[in-house]
Description:
Layout: H1 5-12, H2 18-40, H3 51-75, H4 78-84, H5 88-98, H6 106-123, H7 129-161, H8 164-186, H9 197-222, H10 227-231, H11 233-248, H12 255-272, H13 276-284
Amino acid sequence: xxxxxxxxxxxxxxxxxxxxxxxxxxxxxxxxxxxxxxxxxxxxxxxxxxxxxxxxxxxxxxxxxxxxxxxxxxxxxxxxxxxxxxxxxxxxxxxxxxxxxxxxxxxxxxxxxxxxxxxxxxxxxxxxxxxxxxxxxxxxxxxxxxxxxxxxxxxxxxxxxxxxxxxxxxxxxxxxxxxxxxxxxxxxxxxxxxxxxxxxxxxxxxxxxxxxxxxxxxxxxxxxxxxxxxxxxxxxxxxxxxxxxxxxxxxxxxxxxxxxxxxxxxxxxxxxxxxxxxxxxxxxxxxxxxx
Length: 291
């Protein structure tokens, strides 16, 4: 379901402004998660001392994450956005090294270099017309990945103290406070009466499936399978996007993009191979992916 978000989001962005789409997604997901936690009776109250950390986590993992991703998606292709999102594990590890929560090694550093080379090959100067037209959007998607990595680093304590579903819900509630007004303001020049039923269905799909349902299913899956199994979903997204985006959006999977994807995959796999702490953290925090 996460892999379909860039594709369906790209369709919705043809009619809805990017900031408005973020507002719809975050607000809708916040309401859905509140209803879910109410039904399950699992919403924990956050202690006053933990609110600053929660706000920072929401800022990095949801507000900036979503704004950067959706704006980037409006300026690039769904295939590029999905491919570049696979740099999240490497970004998380790099930020972990800076914050001294992860140990560095030559093998991991080599993986980072390989992944970075793949990203540069896709968005760097002197390349094809495909990458020159999408370069700004691609850079925003990469920035989104680094925001998510920073979120992982600062939110570990919250997940240790509270259950994952409660943390997800509160992060969305805080994010809603920031994104809903901005999204509403961006709609001032949009006549909602002219928005077709198909677009509203796309927005409803984004809210219910790639957002609320995916977060709940990830939390549920962690109770049944090893975290490393859940983390594998990150690497499946480009495969799904490569198959679906040409059919729905008419996007072309160029040889340039395929070579870049192989380089990124190779680098990410080198970094995350046998790095149990990083993989577990990513798997335990899929809820904030831009994803």
